[in-house]
Amino acid sequence: MTNASSVLQEVALQGGRELPLRVLSVLGGATRRALEGIGELARFTVRTAESVRDIRTWGPSATLQMRRLGVGSLPIGVFIALFTGIVLSLLASYSFTGAVPLYFVGTLVEKTITLELAPVLTGLALAGRVGANIAAELGTMRVTEQIDALETLGYDPHAYLVVPRVLAGIVMFPVVVGAAMVMGVASGWVASIGLLDISSAEFVKGMRLFFSAFDVRYGLVKASSFGFMVTLIGSVRGLRAGGGAEGVGRAATDAVVYSAVMILVLDAFWAIIWLLGSQR
Question: How many H-runs (helices) and E-runs (strands) does the chain carry?
Answer without folding.
Answer: 13, 0
